[in-house]
């Protein structure tokens, strides 16, 4: 990615991004390649800091992008939401730190593939990911469980 693209994507002034890129280059955390008039930057995968920093970023960004990536390719998945304590905290409600991630997978997916995908996310994040699978018709029902899920708030991972 070029410094200009990064500046536009982050909506941060070019001068600020340019200065920080210089610091990251000096620290050996990123690499630079000149292509024409562009300076393309990327992670320095040879740095001893690469793995711990990438793991920290995965945890800090939360489970949404990891779950999206893991479940988008599973046939039959129409919608995915995070509910429970993780969603509740992410939506700004107070309470103890979540101990797991409750995920509602809506559609007619292969159960084994859903559990395998959630297992991969569990390994990356270090928090158990607990999928509940239901059909679209079940999702639209008015059950005590779903009233509780909706009342607590949900984070959309994949929209239909």
Largest sheet: 4 strands, mixed
Q: Give the averaged pLDDT, no decimals.
A: 93
Number of alpha- plus pi-helical segments: 8
The total strand number stands at 6
Strand content: 15-25%
Global geometry: elongated
Query: Can you tell me the CATH superfamily of the largest domain?
Result: Beta Polymerase, domain 2
Separation of termini? 30 Å
| H-E string | HHEEHHEHEHEHHE
Q: Which architecture of the largest domain would the CATH scheme give at its second level?
A: 2-Layer Sandwich
CATH topology of the largest domain: Beta Polymerase, domain 2
> Helix- and strand-based class?
alpha+beta
Report the helical percentage: 40-55%
Uncertain segments of ≥5 residues (pLDDT<50)? none
Give the helix/strand layout.
Layout: H1 3-10, H2 14-27, E1 30-35, E2 38-43, H3 50-61, H4 63-72, E3 77-83, H5 85-90, E4 101-107, H6 111-125, E5 129-134, H7 136-139, H8 144-152, E6 155-158
Helix pairs in contact: 1-2, 4-6
Keywords:
elongated, 6 strands, four-stranded mixed β-sheet, 2 domains, alpha+beta
Give a description of the structure.
This protein has 160 residues and is α+β, with helices and mostly antiparallel strands. It has 2 domains: 3-55, no CATH class; 62-158, Beta Polymerase, domain 2 (2-Layer Sandwich), CATH 3.30.460. Helix content is 49%, strand content 22%. The chain has 8 helices and 6 strands. It has helices spanning 3-10, 14-27, 50-61, 63-72, 85-90, 111-125, 136-139, 144-152; strands at residues 30-35, 38-43, 77-83, 101-107, 129-134, 155-158. The strands form 2 sheets. The protein has a 4-stranded mixed beta sheet, sandwiched between helices. Strands 1-2 form a two-stranded antiparallel sheet. The protein is elongated. The two termini are 30 Å apart. The mean pLDDT is 93. InterPro entries: ArsR-like_HTH, NT_sf, WH-like_DNA-bd_sf, WH_DNA-bd_sf. This is ArsR family transcriptional regulator.
């Amino acid at each position: 990615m070029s410094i200009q693209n990064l500046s536009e994507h982050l909506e941060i002034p070019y001068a600020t991004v340019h200065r920080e890129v210089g610091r990251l280059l000096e620290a050996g955390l990123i690499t630079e390649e000149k292509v024409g008039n562009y300076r393309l930057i990327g992670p320095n995968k040879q740095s001893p800091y690469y793995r711990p920093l990438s793991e920290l970023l995965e945890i800090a960004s939360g489970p949404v992008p990891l779950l999206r990536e893991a479940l988008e390719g599973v046939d039959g998945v129409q919608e995915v939401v995070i509910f429970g304590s993780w969603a509740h905290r992410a939506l700004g409600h107070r309470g103890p730190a979540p101990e797991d991630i409750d995920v509602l997978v809506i559609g007619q997916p292969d159960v084994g593939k859903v559990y395998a995908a959630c297992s991969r996310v569990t390994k990356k994040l270090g928090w158990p990911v607990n999928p509940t699978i239901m059909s679209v018709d079940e999702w639209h029902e008015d059950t005590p469980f779903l009233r509780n899920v909706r009342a607590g708030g949900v984070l959309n991972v994949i929209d239909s």
